[in-house]
Amino acid sequence: MEVRHLVMQILAFMWSGVFSIYIVNSLGVFKYTAIAHALLIAAIFVTAFVFQTAKNKPEVFDHKFFRGKDGEHD
After folding, report:
1. What residue spans define the domains of the chain?
2. pLDDT tens, 10-38?
3. SS3 at position 34
4. 73 — phi, psi (to 5°)?
């Protein structure tokens, strides 16, 4: 999963640069498009990680999982 995330980030930066230089004709736009792409990809991977965890270990999201040893909430 980490390798896929790295590859997606590299592609995002590449396409942000291409968009900034060829479409808008400005390197100043690169920082905004790079940040937007990084946030979008990070959000997708966090969401995928949460869904994968919920599928493989549903007990993590069980209300009882967040209780202390004595059964009380912290």
Report:
1. 2-66
2. 888 888 888 777 776 777 777 888 888 88
3. helix
4. -75, 145
Q: Are 49 and 1 in contact (CB under 8 A)?
A: yes
Return all residues near 15 (Cβ < 8 A) that are at least 6 apart: 37
Rounded to 5 degrees, φ, ψ at 67 are -85, 155
Do the beta carbons of residue 41 and residue 14 sit within 8 Å? no
HSE-CB for 2 with a 13 A CA cutoff? 0
Place of tokens 């940040």: 35
Which amino acid belongs to residue 27?
L
- Look up residue 26 and give its two tokens: 């400005």
pLDDT, tens only, 31-50: 888 888 889 888 998 998 88
Spatial separation of the C-alpha atoms in residues 63 and 11, rounded to whole Å: 39
